[in-house]
Input
Amino acid sequence: TSGGDSALTAGYGSTQTAQEGSNLTAGYGSTGTAGADSSLIAGYGSTQTSGSDSALTAGYGSTQTAQESSNLTAGYGSTGTAGSDSSLIAGYGST
Output
């Protein structure tokens, strides 16, 4: 599902929602939601949620939530939550 002026690219078996003005790229078997004017890039088997004006990049098998105006970058197998106006960078297997 892609909103107005958004770009959505998804692999097979994935479920993705890109809201207005957002950019979402996801590998297979992933679940992603990109808020308005946000950027979300997710590897396979991951679950990602990015709030408005946020940037979220995650490797495979990870679960990530980036709130409004935050930047979250995570390796595989990690679980991360980035609050509003924050920046989070995490390696693999981390919480």
